């Protein structure tokens, strides 16, 4: 028989790993069905509402339209525009929504993204190819670069462009990839809870974690009207009173009376309290450097003796309270 619930569990765990412009983000535990309810709108918000930068118009001296050509440039203007759209810009002053920048190139020269960097503009794709000028080639170029969201077709703003400028369809979003997976997880013997795992990749205009944070903030702001109308309040979790049997978790690892080899390996790993071992679990303890099979067996046996089997994780509310108390202990020592 399923346990009767009177409230929905609030997710309490958030972690991420980041490498360059990629990030993996985990949030859990969600009640069954709530994972997708949260993940899908965040993904949609990331794609459609993350601010980025793009060229919206250009002017080339001696060129009247996008189907023209320029003497001394290998590419025709249409190919040049396609290459230019592959360049990912960034306005250096975040308070500015628009800049106009001028360039002058004389051949022979191969022009790449890095050649467009100046005091006002950065380029996050510096190696991207744009065009090649021969000995007779000369390119005088002006670009209008704007901040925006999503995709905007040139038809939406062509009438606003200065004279002699060629309008460009603009793809502002800096998000290259955002996917999510939902995995089942065990919470207090119930396997029907969910973990949401996001993979976010940007083009370098914005840090992937900052993009995720901005998307969540944008999504939450959509509900502000309800908070105001219905005077809604976010429920805060109450502090958990730990039962006496958990006090042993805040004792130093010396009290386990381990052999010196085992103790020294844990000490070098920066583990000071018994609770840190319990929170790590078997797999992470096994990865601690210089802990052999005998040492691992000894540690697991000692923890069993004091009533903490690593095969059964702590209840979620207890785990959170233990983490908070251990963090305070370590903070008071520093």
Describe it for me?
This protein is of the alpha+beta class. The chain folds into three domains: 13-50 and 176-230, 2-Layer Sandwich (Gyrase A, domain 2); 51-171, DNA-directed RNA polymerase, insert domain (RNA Polymerase Alpha Subunit, Chain A, domain 2); 244-333, Orthogonal Bundle (DNA polymerase, domain 1), CATH 1.10.150.20. It has helices at 34-49, 77-85, 208-221, 224-230, 260-268, 274-286, 293-305, 316-333, and strands at residues 13-19, 22-30, 51-60, 89-91, 98-106, 109-112, 121-123, 129-133, 138-149, 151-152, 166-167, 170-171, 175-187, 190-202. The strands form five sheets. The chain has a four-stranded antiparallel sheet with strand order 1-2-14-13. Strands 5-9-3-11 form a four-stranded antiparallel sheet, with no helix packed on it. Helix 1 packs across helix 3. The protein starts with 12 loop residues before the first strand and ends with a helix. The model has no long low-confidence stretch (mean pLDDT 89).
């Amino acid at each position: 028989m399923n346990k009767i619930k009177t409230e929905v569990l609030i997710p309490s765990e958030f972690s991420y790993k980041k490498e360059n412009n990629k990030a993996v983000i985990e949030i859990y535990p969600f009640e069954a069905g709530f994972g997708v309810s949260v993940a899908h709108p965040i993904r949609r918000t990331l794609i459609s509402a993350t601010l980025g930068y793009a060229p919206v118009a250009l002017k080339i001296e001696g060129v009247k339209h996008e189907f023209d050509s320029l003497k001394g440039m290998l590419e025709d203007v249409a190919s040049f525009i396609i290459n230019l759209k592959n360049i990912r810009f960034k306005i250096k002053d975040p308070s500015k929504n628009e800049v106009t920048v001028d360039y002058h190139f004389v051949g022979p020269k191969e022009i790449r993204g890095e050649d467009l960097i100046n005091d006002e503009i950065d380029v996050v794709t510096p190696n991207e190819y744009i065009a090649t000028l021969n000995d007779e080639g000369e390119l005088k170029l002006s670009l209008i670069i704007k901040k925006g969201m999503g995709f905007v077709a040139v038809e939406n703003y062509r009438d606003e462009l200065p004279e002699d400028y060629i309008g460009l369809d603009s793809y502002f979003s800096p998000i290259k990839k955002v996917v999510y997976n939902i995995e089942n997880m065990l919470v207090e013997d119930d396997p029907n809870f969910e973990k949401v795992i996001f993979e976010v990749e940007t083009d370098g205009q914005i840090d992937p974690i900052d993009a995720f944070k901005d998307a969540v903030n944008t999504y939450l702001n959509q509900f502000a009207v309800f908070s105001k109308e219905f005077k809604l309040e976010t429920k805060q979790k109450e502090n958990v009173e730990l039962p006496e049997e958990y006090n042993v978790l805040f004792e130093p690892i010396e009290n386990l009376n381990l052999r010196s080899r085992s103790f020294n390996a844990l000490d070098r790993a920066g583990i000071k309290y018994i609770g840190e071992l319990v929170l790590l679990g078997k797999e992470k303890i096994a990865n601690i450097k210089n802990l052999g099979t005998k040492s691992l067996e000894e540690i697991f046996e000692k923890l069993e003796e004091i009533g903490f089997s690593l095969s059964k994780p702590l209840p979620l509310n207890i785990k959170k309270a233990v983490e908070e108390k251990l963090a305070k202990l370590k903070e008071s020592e520093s």
